[in-house]
Amino acid sequence: MRQLFWDATNPHSIPPGQPYRWDDANLFFQDGIGYAREPGDPGFVPYGPPPDPLSSLTQPKRRKTMPKSDYIQNRDADFSAQLNTFKLNIAPYVATFGLTTAQVDGQAADAAYFAYALACQEVCINGSQQWTAWKDLIRDGGTPPASGAPAPGVLPAAVPVVAPGVEVRFRALVKMIKAHPAYNEGIGQALGIEGAAQTGPDFATFKPVFAVELRGGQVFIAWTWQGQSAYLDMIELLVDRSDGKGFVFLAQDTTPGYADSTPLPATPAKWTYKAIFRVGDQRVGQWSDEVSITVGG
Fold it and tell me: Do 256 and 219 contact (CB within 8 A), yes or no?
């Protein structure tokens, strides 16, 4: 090994004579003195070509992906259609994801039975409305329709019953598929299991909305993300304590709800707050409306 001094170059680098780097695995300190391991020393790590200083410029920048809504459809009719889309389009991907016959057949049975239950519900709802109208007519009087009393509803042909938890099973199956290395968004679109991309707030009009109140001898600022936490990093709070200084910086907060720890004055005073959201080191959106509270005294 050899002792190091400032501006020392590495005779063993490729090419030779390159400056030593702080992350060099062969550098170490002992008793406050720097040393470099050399070929033949225990623990010596062979050198390779120096890193290309332009390589970081040629690497593709990682794109920030937009958050997506839950892929599961909320309305029953839409969820039933989603189950059916998956059932009709999964066949080409069975081998790709290593799905078993039981998994594929089970999902198909769930789709069929949920559609059957939904159709039965529709028949019953329609029949209920008709019979309610007929009941009211019979009780209160009036002219009955030419068709007379409602006809009994006809349910669709029965299908094999499945256990409760269709959505739970579907989510578990989709989770397994999405975790597979072969999965991509295109496949997800074909199977109907990709949520819609959410768009951020319109910063031309978006601004914080909050309230202030006294809690335990402090002013509490009750702010929230207003449903846009995926697009925001923090909130910046300013306060005017009616002391002639105008608005001054109070805090940058990343957790909704902030307690102003400044002691309350001995005499009544009006404290006024305003806020703006931030993304990184940039303010975004508009300043909030000013919100005031009387404190002290």
Answer: no
Distance, CA of 83 to CA of 109 (rounded, Å)? 10
Conformation bin of residue 210: beta by default, left when phi > 0, alpha when psi is -120 to 50: beta
* Calpha distance 212→219 (Å, rounded): 7
Give the whole-angstrom CA distance, residue 244 versus residue 117: 69
Tokens, residue 145? 């329709």
Q: Which two tokens stand for residue 74?
A: 């909320």
Tell me the pTM: 0.50
The pair of three-digit structure tokens given for residue 93, joined into one six-digit string: 């991907």
Q: Is the pLDDT of residue 271 over 50?
A: yes
Please tell me whether residue 115 adopts helix, strand or coil conformation: helix
Structure confidence by residue, pLDDT tens digits, 28-58:
767 667 778 888 887 778 877 655 544 444 4
Alpha carbon of residue 127 to chain centroid: 42
Judge if the upstream peptide bond of residue 201 is cis by omega within 30 degrees of 0. no
Give CA angle at 93 (108, 90), nearest 5°.
25
3-state secondary structure 4-52: CCCCCEECCCCCCCEECCCCCCCEEEECCEEEECCCCCCCCCCCCCCCC
- Per residue in 93-134, pLDDT (tens digit) is 999 999 999 999 999 999 999 999 999 999 999 999 999 999
Tell me if 73 sits within 8 A of 83, measured CB to CB: no
Give me the percent of the chain exceeding a pLDDT of 90: 68
Terminal C-alpha separation, the chain: 74
Distance CA 240, CA 290 (A): 10
Neighbours of 162 (CB within 10 A): 17
Which residue type does 96 have? T
Lowest mean pLDDT among 142-151, 168-177, 190-199: 190-199
